[in-house]
Fold this protein.
Amino acid sequence: MTDKLKIGVIGTGMIGQDHIRRITHVLAGGEVTAVTDTDRSRAQEVAKTYGGIEVFDSSDALIASDAVDAVLVCSWGPAHEEAILPALAAGKPVFCEKPLATTQEACLRIIDAEVKLGKRLIQVGYMRRYDRAYADLKATIESGVIGEPLMFHSVHRNASVREGLYTDDMAVADTMVHDIDVTRWLLGDEVARIQVIAGKRNSVGKNLRDPILGIMEMRGGTVATVEVSVNIGYGYDIRGEISAEKGTVELSESNNVVLKAGDSFSGRVPADWRERFIEAYDKELADWIEAAKQGGASGPSAWDGYAIQVVSDAGLKAADSGKPVDIEMADKPALYG
Ligand code: NAP
């Protein structure tokens, strides 16, 4: 396919609209031709803003339309499966925002359907893999210059979350999932066991279990720690350091300049994930569009989505009990390497 990929977007909320902006104004290879949302007025508003977009009453109708070559799923997590399965049945490539689905059973149904097709058609929106700094971290590990990784320390800090809307479970199921993804990806290994400890609470979050510390033991023995703090105040701060046999490598500060004035130095901390990962979101969608044009998929797979869901579920149990929880996963189909 040489023309622009015709993309149908299911869910025109916050990230759906951001991806539509990206496809329309930033990237070259695709165009949004169709939208649907349970809130039809929201979909209509988006279609009006951009022009040339057809509004559909249901995801099934959008997927079946000749105006759609590929499907971008940006509805809320529990609705992902009902969008992905018909898209696979129609043989249309899918980009699904994280999570792949909200239960392990649903993830496995999606995997079964993709395996039956015999080729990958799904990319899941774990965008950190497209961040330049994370890519450099991985390349450094793989170069062998610091030897075998022994530990990975990940830190995920949000300036603030909305009281009442952000609940205890989300610290693992919505926030830590990105750290679980990069841990598996950087170390090239699956998680064997997870423990989640909650100590002294940040008084800003009132009743929220915040911060939490996740400790993951990988199958190969490497240990990863993840701090999730969601009311840290000063900004959105993503940190990561590999401690290895012969050295360490860590993400540098994400600001481009360091200010020195008076007797101190300083730099900007990103306000939120949009600012910190804006290039990564652009790159992940560009990658998806290119792969979808070839009738396939690259980047984080349905298997990654499933594996993260398993660890996330275990993390929630571990957070409630305070005890380590073993990870039990299905066998990995050959399709996922
Ligand atoms: P949002 O603002 O609530 O938007 C979701 C939209 O989907 C809403 O308009 C919602 O309508 C609609 N919707 C729900 N079920 C639907 C269905 N069955 N068919 C069609 N539309 C449906 O949420 P968001 O923040 O954009 O998040 C959407 C997804 O992206 C979530 O899975 C989230 O985890 C993910 N996300 C990922 C990242 C990342 O860093 N990769 C960042 C943000 C979000 P109603 O309001 O009427 O329910």
